[in-house]
Amino acid sequence: MSEKGLIVGIDLGTTYSLVSVLKGGEPTLIHNGLGQVLTPSAVSLTDDGGVLVGAPARARATTHPTRTALSFKRDMGTEKVYDLGLKKFTPQELSAMVLASLRKDAEAALGESVTEAVVTVPAYFGDLQRQATRDAGAIAGLTIERIINEPTAAVLAYGLHERERELRAVILDLGGGTFDVTVLEIIEGVIEIQSSAGDARLGGDDFDAALAERIARRVMADQRIDARNDPRAWARLLRSCEDAKKRLSDANDTAIVLTDVPVGAGRTIHIEARLSRDDAESEWTPLLERMKTPILRALRDSNLTPEKIDEVLLVGGSTRLPCVARLAAQIFGKLPSRKLPPDEAVAMGAAVQAGLKRADRAIDDLVVTDVAPFTMGIATSTSFGGTRIAGVFSPILERGTVIPASRVKSFATVDDLQTAIHVEVYQGEHSLCCDNQKLGEYEVKGLRAAPAGEESIDVRFTYDLNGILEVETTVHATGKKATMVLERTPGRLTSKQIEAARKEMERLKFHPRESLPNATALARADALFVELSGPERENLGHAIATFRAALETQNDSHIAALRDQLIQVVASYRHG
């Protein structure tokens, strides 16, 4: 154990997650049990109640869609529950399983226990989602004292080698489920985040779904078939469209072929469709238009015009789409760059932040500031012409404020003899609270029964480096202070619920890390078996059965040899 304790950096992504550590002043990505740095953010339950995390779980999404959870990061901070047949899970619990898997990978690679991590979240994640991320870490047995915005993490990785330059740059981070924009300036080794904006529900998943909707609309609707009615049909269509999207990053056209697609009542159909890059980009036009809004907002908040930007950096796997790079070039008038691996930049920056937290001497000259991505305030009432209008949003801490920050405003009673004030906390940019996101509510009691306007309170918002909000109230007349824990917060777990979830996770039967290659090979072969027909399907079925029989022998060398054979068969049909 190092003198100041080991801290890892984790990019907890919508589609893929990564874990990293700072070594010798440089971020190092840690490999999982398959020898890969990308671990799918996927969880699947087997028939016997076993839990698969990562690659084998993702492969089962097409064969066992009702037993598999994907993209649950999008639902962090909500009350959604994932029903995987044998058991139900919250988004926090599913994320905790991914975090625990990454933790085991780090411990295997580093040879010591890991109990603390810096975890990244989208810049446009609000307070509820950040608190949920911290809860997920607690369930996984990880202390997450530092949460960092994904584009800020990318900035740290980028700025690590740009400390001597002076420039203004924009980070466009398009991942599997979220889109963030960050404007920054580097001056004399100080990285200053000037603004952040984004869309917490826009990412590569939406590009996949747009293609799937096109195929369903043009191919399946002719036969009066709704692909969404069958989870397996929709899962297979989504996966095929994801593969097609990736191929269209390099090719001008591709084919989507699906055999024996179940459509109900024991019927199956064959789907075959050609898809050109132009066709795909036509379907993606609304998504590209949505990307423009946060880009322009971030520029406006930083008081900059596109021509004042020196460099545009693309981060996130979905920025590989040519139309995304073209959009950036059109807005900024210059070609964007990928100086860092798009899938790895955020994790690399998380390792740098972990090093900063440990006061690593190799990077002690690196300084970064960040800003609040949202405006936060409370609901108030106002009167006009004798009519009271409730639910007016009164900002206390504005977006773009450099954090950590603390802001206070005073508010008075509106009714005679009022002895309590009901405080509702919101985040957002609209003038009415109903159009913003509610973070919670509470009562401030103990006010004197006095005429309206004579009793008042201070409401202080303190926003820390993790993007976590603390609310403090002070009654003017008595000086009584209270640090409020926001109540009725959707999706937030209590300490008892976290402890119960942690104990329940300990009881789950996770697939051993050392057998991950076997589970992954089988899951990927099973997923391909669904797609094939004729002699190819028969040959693959024989390879699967042979490998399953080998697993019963517990002969490691025999199992490894037949696993390699199975992987080769799968690869030949995947690319044949």
CATH C-level class of the largest domain is Alpha Beta
Structural class: alpha+beta
- Estimated radius of gyration: 26 Å
CATH fold topology of the largest domain: Nucleotidyltransferase, domain 5
Mean pLDDT, nearest integer? 89
Based on the structure, what is the oligomeric state of the protein chains?
A: single chain
**Could you name the ranges where pLDDT drops below 50 across 5 or more consecutive residues?**
none
The outline comes out as: globular
The largest sheet, given as strand count, sense and whether it forms a barrel, is: 6 strands, mixed
Distance between the amino and carboxyl termini: 49 Å
Percent in helix = 25-40%
Instruction: Tell me which CATH architecture of the largest domain applies here.
Output: 2-Layer Sandwich
Task: Give keywords.
Substrate Binding Domain Of DNAk, Chain A, domain 1, single chain, alpha+beta, 576 residues, Nucleotidyltransferase, domain 5, 30% strand, globular, six-stranded mixed sheet
Describe the structure.
With 576 residues, this protein is an alpha+beta fold. The protein has 3 domains: 8-202 and 293-365, 2-Layer Sandwich (Nucleotidyltransferase, domain 5), CATH 3.30.420.40; 376-493, Substrate Binding Domain Of DNAk, Chain A, domain 1; 513-574. It has 13 helices and 28 strands. Strands 1, 2, 3, 4, 10 and 11 form a 6-stranded mixed β-sheet that branches. Strands 17-12-13-14-18-21 form a 6-stranded mixed β-sheet, sandwiched between helices. Strands 7-5-6-28 form a 4-stranded mixed β-sheet. The longest helix has 25 residues, at 277-301. The radius of gyration is 26 Å and the shape is globular. 45% of the residues are buried.
